[in-house]
Amino acid sequence: MSASPTQTTQAGATTKNQQSDSAVFLRLWRLFKPYWGWMSLGILLALITVLSNVTLMALSGWFITSMAIAGVAGASIDYFSPAAGIRGLAISRTASRYGERVITHEATFRVIAELRHWFYLHLEPLAPAVLQRYHSGDLLSRIRADIDTLENVYIRIIVPVTVAIIACSLFILFLSRYDTLLAIFVLLMFIIAGVITPLWINKLSAKPAKKKVELSSELRTQVIDSVQGMGELLIYGAAPQQIEKVDKLSKQLLTQQSKLASNFALSQSILSLCINIAMLGVVVIAIPLLMREGSITQAGLSSPNLVMLTLFTLASFEAVMALPLAFQTLPETLAAARRIFSLVDAKPQVTEPKADSPTPKNNDIVFNKVSFSYAKNSDKEPNKNVNKSTANVFNDLSFSLPQGKRLGIVGSSGIGKSSIVNLLLRFWEPTSGSITYGGHELSQYKSEDIRQYFSVVTQQSHFFNSTIKSNLRLAKRDASDAEVEQVCRVAQIHDFILSLPEGYETWVGEAGLKLSGGQLKRLTIARALLKDSPVLILDEPGEGLDSQTEKEMLKAVFEYKKENSILLITHRQTGLDAMDEVLIIE
User: Fold this and answer.
1) Which of 79, 124, 189, 246 is deepest in the core (most CB within 10 A)?
2) Are 118 and 174 members of one domain?
3) Which helix (H) or strand (E) holds 505?
4) Cβ proximity of 408 and 575 under 8 Å
5) Distance between CA atoms of residues 455 and 438, nearest Å
């Protein structure tokens, strides 16, 4: 698998517990590198919006006050220039606000899309050996919720922090032209509102934010268990206990969300207090300046300027208003990032060769004294949602399947027959021994390349919530309707499909919920037959079928694939009479 342009995983990546907050954030920032242009434009527009709004407020206060004083004194005043400036700033604020919303959201969507792509590229080498040790609900949380949480990095953290630093620096520089004490006082309020308060809120929110991410993941896991296992829960009377567990998690999650909401409310109260103190302080400091004579550079101050500075100070706190929320979401964002990186950094069970895959001389398969143990091919993952397997499957297994021949492998359920398929498809690597395909070691083939030589009917096949035809065409996207119907006839499912009101356009439901186990098995076989591969592997093809249907179907399959190599893995006797050789595993 080729690496994504934004791939940042390193061979010696630190574990989740060892990565500091800064290291995690820096790693996220590097992932955003392809979109720095979009992100910078969004920050610029956000800055223009803040500056336009503050300047508009300040200029409006100055203009209204100047007009009032001029009216009382009967003096003339140039009102065209300030009026034009106000109108221009109003247009600038509106346009930049709109542009900022469009650009920042576009940048966020592009970043999230790239993160999903990057994440899936790292997930694929981990399937199924590593991923099977994680609960499906936990994986769903990482793929969806945790990735979605990372949108906070740009739109809620990077943008407001960057804008606040630049804007506040400009505001203090502007105030210093009137009075140094004035600038220092407002700077102090900025520090309290934009630095001390956010850091304090960040500290208060660290534990509840982390707990929120964990509880959200656990809640999704339990809800998925409830939905997928509803039948079993009802049959065994375990539904009330499961409902109680989900309810308990929901209450715990609400508790953490309530703490975060309280922290946010506290931060907004402090900010409001800082704003009012800042305005009052500006008035107190600026009033004595009204008594002085001279120009602005000599610290003189006119009445309109007093109003202008007061409103300027009020509006300038817009630059720091979003900082408490930014620092409050930071722990949650980092927690989600750590969960993603912990999965991305997991070591694949199969090592991909650096060289190109060899061209097989033929389609011969040879197992030579192969031993396999899940315990030695699994990492220990300190996660409560990890399923650990420690079974020693088989030792010194040897057999061969020459090109065009048929081999039956027989053994009781759970003895490890399906592990043979997993080794052939390079989902796992053998503990010891040698496996060759076409005269070359299987380890010389890249996983994607070796899998193109096999059509596999697995015991558990996934069906998407789409039509029957769409699910079948996953094996061959350009398959014609005639080809689809042909393999369905062979799999003894064509007549049933035609009996449905919408035929091949019938939707199967999530995970094939609308169809029976036997119907899904025959569709799985039809899908495998549609793939044009030299080797057909049938892993318990009669599961869920009656003996007569299984017999007729296997006979049709063997005839349809009479030129192909066939590996039949079963614990039944049906179909073994058509095999060239039968291997019994005990």
Assistant:
1) 189
2) yes
3) none
4) yes
5) 16
User: How confident is the model over 70-127, as pLDDT tens digits?
Assistant: 888 777 777 788 889 999 999 999 999 999 999 999 999 998 888 888 888 888 888 7
**Could you please report the per-residue DSSP string of 408-454?**
EEE--TTSSHHHHHHHHTTSS--SEEEEEETTEEGGGS-HHHHHTTE
Determine contact, residues 336/211, Cβ cutoff 8 Å: no
- 5 lies in a domain? no
Look at the block and give the residue holding tokens 């039968």: 582
Q: Is residue 6 part of a domain?
A: no
CATH number at residue 544: 3.40.50.300
Q: What's the CA gap between 421 and 451, in Å, rounded? A: 11
- Of 436 and 388, more confident: 436
Residues 303 and 387 in one domain: no
Q: CATH number, domain at 184?
A: 1.20.1560.10
- Contact assessment for residue 260 and residue 212, using Cβ atoms and an 8 Å cutoff: yes
* DSSP per-residue string spanning 131-149: GGGB-HHHHHIIIIIIHHH
Whether 428 maps to a domain, the answer reads yes
> Looking at 344, 373, 401, which one is the last position of a domain?
344
CA pair distance 162, 157, nearest whole angstrom: 8
For residue 10, being part of any structural domain is answered with no
For the chain, the C-alpha Rg in angstroms (whole number) is 34
| Total domain count, the chain | 2
Left if phi > 0, otherwise alpha if psi is -120 to 50, otherwise beta: which for 310?
A: alpha
Residue-level pLDDT at 304:
86
Kindly state whether residues 436 and 567 are assigned to the same domain.
yes
% of the chain with per-residue pLDDT over 90:
38
**441: region left, alpha or beta (phi > 0 left; psi from -120 to 50 alpha):** beta
294 and 420 in a common domain: no
Give the confidence band of 301 by pLDDT, cuts at 50, 70, 90: low
Closest CA to 301 of 152, 312, 83, 13: 312
Domain boundary among 311, 344, 377: 344
Query: Is 524 within 8 Å of 545 (Cβ atoms)?
Result: no
pLDDT digits (tens, 9 = 90+) for 448-502: 899 999 999 888 888 888 898 999 999 888 889 899 999 999 988 898 999 988 8
Same domain for 331 and 457: no
> 569 is in which domain, residue-wise?
365-584
242 with 131, same domain: the answer is: yes
Please report which confidence band the pLDDT of residue 166 belongs to, taking 50, 70 and 90 as the band edges: very high
User: Mean pLDDT of all residues in the chain?
Assistant: 85
pTM confidence score: 0.73
Q: Are residues 199 and 258 in the same domain?
A: yes
Sheet holding 392-401, edge to edge: 392-401, 365-373, 432-437, 440-441
Task: Please give the pLDDT value at position 383.
Answer: 41
Would you state the structure tokens that stand for residue 550, as one six-digit string? Answer: 């299984």
pLDDT tens, 26-38?
A: 888 888 888 899 9
pLDDT at 296: 43
Please report the DSSP string for 182-247 in residue order: HHHHHHHHHHIIIIIHHHHHHHHHHHHHHHHHHHHHHHHHHHHHHHHTHHHHHHTT-HHHHHHHHH
Give me 92's structure tokens.
């600038």
Position 28 scores a pLDDT of 86
